[in-house]
């Protein structure tokens, strides 16, 4: 059976699978559908800002992919790399260190974009992104956390910082999130007798002279700006968030805003998995024809935010919106089914219906069919009605409606979802004879022996050749990390063993900053390499 | 105004504050009530197992403390240490490194017990505790995670491990959690065509010869064991969970159970904050009289699981149950109010009403008034009715009732609550002139300079005395960590600075295992100490 593999379970990926399942029913030759996604659920992105604000519960905006896609095989994994020539995708290992491959006949890129703060000094370290569900929860947690800290803070400077919130980026998501943050903070603060509402400051930093300048007509952008200003958001136009520290946000005008909470919604970068591929790219996006077929590859497809697909109706490229991704998915599923049997391919043609942006607190802006403009309560009612209708699955519709109803009576509690903090340096225990890693495994950790003895060997069975025995204070696994290769040997425990495991990324950070450590590792490696050869 | 400070917001602490607020109304001299809790909410512990199973939502079992206790001052912090003689409590710093003190006239210990796996090699590293809300979420996440991994696993040995679940401890919470885990796994597995229900194994390891031997009469304990066995739980009696590794659970009979999920409900240890105090302790619990007053201290009080309070009705000590803590709280609040004015103190007298244990899937066991025994559906209905009635706040009652109703129609989705992983080694960015830490701050991090230059100095204003200038590759902050003292100097950025920050605990782990690193740090420290002197 031919296998169609979809990378990504957002609007593009999930809806492609949904339509492929329909195609499957009428297909002459059955084919297999598989999807890879980091989570086992689909997130209804447009409602994420409401999770921050709390009019929706954490799980209201999500749909389990297995339920949505009963005939699709789901891999809940990270994609490690893609090998187009061999027709396979490497997924990140889980519960084992062995590489994990999935083969495909047709591959669909639906990877969207990523928030990429790398290279943005300060933002990278101290700004909260707003992109996925985990981000929404993190932002909500942070707001509750600073309010609690502010409630008992007697040092006025620190209290001021705790009650100041800075959002970078006044596009769609920046505007939506600042609106929700502002509503939440001002509503919650009333519950704290020691917090004076006048001490609360919410800033929105935008590089242009009006909000949502790319997405909305001028009048609606200005309306949004005025409305937010009236509700207490201070907007800084024509400036960027330059950097952030644990104590402040710094703008490129030189203004320094003392604060403990910085949210950044810019920029969306192309998914880094795509960049190294031998494909025709345009600003990091996969170039396709109007049938979503990748330039020069009959079995590769791309759609949504990670694709550069011509917009036949309006010229240019299709905009990176859910509206387009959902419609592209239907045409794409048809085209894949057609190329699997003998059908005729279609071209994607769609004229945007309009745009809507929520502004919190029962208001929104909307433009429909490029001519009708709405704002305020009416636009907000349209926003809710239209997105509610678009929610996939009856379950979701009921849950969201229920949350909206309850919100007016029993609002969602302002509490943090705390998880036990993940340990920087993991401690692991092994019993005698257990294998810590196998030859050929992916080199993802460095190990330091705290107690016990291990044996390092290569080969299997009779071919087994002992390389070294290591004890307390010695380390192993550094070779695969330093050389980015897979493990050259197997490590087995001779006794009960306690080890520290340092993640590849943490190891990299340490080694590149600790001179002594690097020298020491390099010396050991030299000795060991000679032993293997 | 006199200040009553309560440490801990569980049943003992929250209900003490609640009753103190009532006492406040009739008090001649008003007093201040304050409570310290790690979270800003109270968790209704008895329903936590249902969060694992998913018949209740994550936030259904919690009540914001501010709402519950409108007249109480809430500190959402960790307690660092307690100074009885000076009458103050040190709270962990947050958003600053400066120490944070709270003074008290009366102090109430309501710290409960903690899950303490220290010294339990293997369990400490690889077993999930089941004690608080974060634990419930973590267990639920883990179950969903292994099911997803198992669904696509082709290596039979790994698949077997992924589908095996081991719970250590067959007391109340162990029995409740294994019942919910078993129900959840078997229900969810049906949604995965590639998982054969026969491959699922759920084990309960108990040290005695019947379940809940301490809490329930023999007949009900045996009933629970038989019921769980019928539903597929394999119970190992008369043995302990000896250790665990990433690959298996090991029992002290020598049996090794290959698995990826180990949950341990034993043991509950006294809160480590209490141990160093100059108080009369009994097995780590604070000894009080029948009025909850701490032995020999007229302004110290203790109740609930962290107190050794005589049980006047039945002899011995009061058992560590919510039932007792709630009733103790009322008497304790009265006694504190009495000692603040001139009232007469009361003694705590209460005869347990009975015990109930849920067994999942519409069944439970219950014993009331020491003579009536119930099991199965009837006991389950009693369980729900009684605990529902005990839920504080109308909001909670509505939400829980709603969740229970919805559970039969639209069950809570089996999705993971994922948070962005906290980084092992934090990267921080500072701008010129910013202070990284102040003299006198708590030494909680070691810093390594990645880029930029800092100045280390002691004294303030004109007294300022530069100690050193440090640049790329150099580190600072190690002295307070090595000596467990507060900072001896202030560090200010001369340029924009990027640093790595290593948590005290991670630093400790590294230093005690890397010979070279320790030597190097000790050498630097020696030089710097001379510079300061």
TrEMBL record, chains A, B:
SUPFAM superfamilies, sorted: cAMP-binding domain-like, FAD/NAD(P)-binding domain
Domain spans labelled Cyclic nucleotide-binding: 429-519
Record-linked PROSITE patterns: CNMP_BINDING_3 (PS50042)
Keyword terms, alphabetized: FAD, Flavoprotein, Oxidoreductase
Keyword Transcription attached: no
Cofactor dependence: FAD
Gene3D superfamilies documented for this protein: 3.50.50.100, Jelly Rolls (2.60.120.10)
This protein's record includes keyword Nuclease: no
Family: Belongs to the NADH dehydrogenase family.
The name this protein goes by in its record: Cyclic nucleotide-binding domain-containing protein
Species assigned in the record: Candidatus Neptunichlamydia vexilliferae
């Amino acid at each position: 059976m031919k296998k169609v593999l979809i990378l990504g379970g957002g609007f593009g990926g999930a809806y492609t699978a949904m339509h492929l399942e329909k195609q499957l029913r009428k297909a002459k030759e059955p084919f297999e559908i598989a999807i890879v996604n980091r989570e086992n659920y689909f997130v209804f992105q447009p409602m994420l800002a409401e999770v921050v604000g709390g009019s929706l519960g954490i799980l209201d905006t999500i749909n389990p992919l297995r339920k949505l896609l009963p005939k699709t095989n789901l891999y809940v994994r990270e994609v490690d790399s893609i090998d187009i020539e061999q027709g396979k995708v490497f997924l990140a290992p889980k519960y084992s260190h062995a590489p994990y491959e999935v083969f495909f006949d047709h591959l669909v890129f639906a990877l969207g974009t990523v928030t990429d703060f790398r290279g943005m000094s300060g933002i990278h370290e101290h700004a909260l992104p707003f992109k996925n569900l985990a981000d929404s929860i993190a932002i909500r947690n942070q707001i509750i956390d600073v309010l609690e800290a502010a409630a008992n803070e007697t040092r006025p400077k620190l209290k001021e910082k705790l009650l100041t919130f800075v959002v970078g980026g006044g596009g769609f998501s920046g505007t939506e999130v600042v609106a929700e943050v502002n509503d939440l903070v001002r509503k919650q603060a009333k519950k704290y007798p020691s917090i004076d509402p006048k001490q609360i400051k919410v800033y929105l930093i935008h590089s242009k002279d009006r909000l949502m300048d790319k997405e909305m007509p001028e009048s609606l952008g200005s309306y949004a700006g005025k409305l937010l200003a009236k509700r207490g958001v201070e907007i800084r136009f024509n400036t960027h968030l330059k950097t952030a520290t644990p104590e402040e946000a710094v703008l490129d005008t030189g203004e320094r805003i003392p604060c403990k909470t910085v949210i950044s919604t810019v920029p969306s970068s192309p998914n880094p998995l795509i960049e190294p591929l031998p494909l025709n790219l345009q600003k990091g996006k996969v170039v396709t024809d109007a049938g979503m077929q990748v330039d020069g590859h009959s079995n590769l497809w791309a759609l949504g935010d990670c694709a550069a697909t011509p917009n036949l109706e309006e010229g240019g490229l299709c905009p990176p919106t859910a509206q387009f991704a959902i419609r592209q998915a239907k045409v794409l599923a048809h085209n894949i089914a057609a190329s699997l049997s003998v059908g005729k391919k279609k071209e994607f043609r769609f004229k945007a219906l309009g745009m809507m942006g929520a502004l919190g607190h029962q208001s929104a802006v909307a433009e429909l069919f490029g001519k009708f403009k709405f704002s305020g309560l009416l636009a907000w009612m349209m926003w809710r009605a239209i997105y509610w209708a678009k929610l996939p699955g009856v379950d979701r519709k009921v849950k969201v409606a229920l949350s909206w109803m309850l919100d007016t009576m029993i609002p969602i509690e302002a509490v943090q979802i705390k998880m036990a903090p993940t340990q920087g340096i993991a401690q692991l225990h092994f019993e005698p004879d257990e294998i810590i890693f196998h030859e050929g495994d992916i080199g993802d950790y460095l190990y330091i022996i705290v107690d016990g003895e291990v044996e390092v060997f290569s080969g299997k069975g009779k071919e087994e050749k002992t390389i070294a025995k290591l004890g307390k204070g010695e380390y192993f696994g550094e070779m695969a990390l330093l050389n980015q290769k897979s493990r050259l040997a197997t490590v087995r425990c001779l006794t009960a063993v306690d080890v520290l495991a340092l993640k590849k990324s943490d190891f990299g950070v340490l080694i590149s900053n600790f001179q002594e450590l690097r020298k020491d590792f390099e010396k050991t490696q030299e000795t060991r390499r000679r032993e293997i050869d």
